[in-house]
Amino acid sequence: MTPFDLVEPASLKEAIALIDPDDPDVRPIAGGTALMLMMKAGVFRPRRLVSLRKLGGFCGITAMPSGDLRIGAMTPLSAVEHSPEVARHAPVIVRAMRKLANVRVRNVATVGGALAHADPHMDLPPVLIALGASVSVVGMSGERTMPVEDLLTGYYETALAKNELITDVHIPAQDATRAVYFKVTAGSADDWPALGVAVALVAEGSNVKSARIVVSAATTKAMRLKAAEKALIGLAVDDATLKKVADIAADEADILADVRGSASYKRELLRVYAVRAVRAVMQASGEPH
User: Which candidate, 2, 9, 132, 235, has a CA 20 to 30 Å from the CA of 41?
Assistant: First the structure.
């Protein structure tokens, strides 16, 4: 690892001022679980890291009277995992956290860092997209809000300007929405997934009123499968409907091959797990089988 300077600003304004958008060798660091691995591998050789650890007001979880959740960007993943507010308002997040990497990583990695890193194998982004979450972003030009699905633009790429930082995540009240997340790994349960599928539905009896279907890991970014969603809305969930939705999902997703499996293998996984996820939600158990 090459030598670098570490600066620790005490305010958000100071942190943003230290991140030079024209200098690719300057980068912010939150938990650093992914960035440090990249530095050790020689993928990234920074001249300066701007630590966000001393910034106040961006760590914590707040449940609103409306049922909305706000999670500060510097909140460790382990805090999300063990939060009674998250368990009450968005239990699918807690279940997903239990199999994300390992406890050592979850104790250090942050919510904002996980999103800004934009690794398509991360478990949190597809779940947040399925729940309709958004992020607040601050830069030199001010503050803006965007859906998580718009934040992720490509393979390790986001819509963030180089001197913008995520400050918090907003999860709207889920009300009648039920959601599940399936993580399919080629190794251990906490390994990087070959496929991730998150599904959030509102149903009335056996009929689907609204749907969000998100695929990750097998694609360049976590992304909604809007054609598959459309094929499900307004219909009773039966074997014929599920087969149609699964086929549309497999055709719609731009599947990539890697060391975890071929594109054809992952496409078949998506067919299978899209069906399993929808069935799990419709069974109203909230737990994948």
Answer: 9
Based on the fold, state whether residues 75 and 157 are members of the same structural domain: yes
First vs last C-alpha separation in the chain: 44
Domain stop point among 155, 171, 187 = 171
Residue 72 CB neighbour total at 10 angstroms: 22
Q: Name, in order, each residue with C-beta under 8 angstroms of 254's C-beta and a sequence gap of 6 or more.
A: 219, 220
CATH of the domain at 193: 3.30.390.50
At which of 33, 51, 69 does a domain end? 51
pLDDT per residue, tens digit, the chain (289 aa), is 789 999 999 999 999 999 999 999 999 999 999 999 889 888 889 999 999 999 988 999 999 999 999 999 999 999 999 999 999 999 999 999 999 989 999 999 999 999 999 999 999 999 999 999 999 999 999 999 999 999 999 999 999 999 999 999 999 999 999 999 999 998 887 788 999 999 999 999 999 999 999 999 999 999 999 999 999 999 999 999 999 999 999 999 999 999 999 999 999 999 999 999 999 999 964 333 3
Assign residue 69 the CATH number of its domain.
3.30.465.10
Please tell me whether residues 160 and 190 are part of one structural domain: no
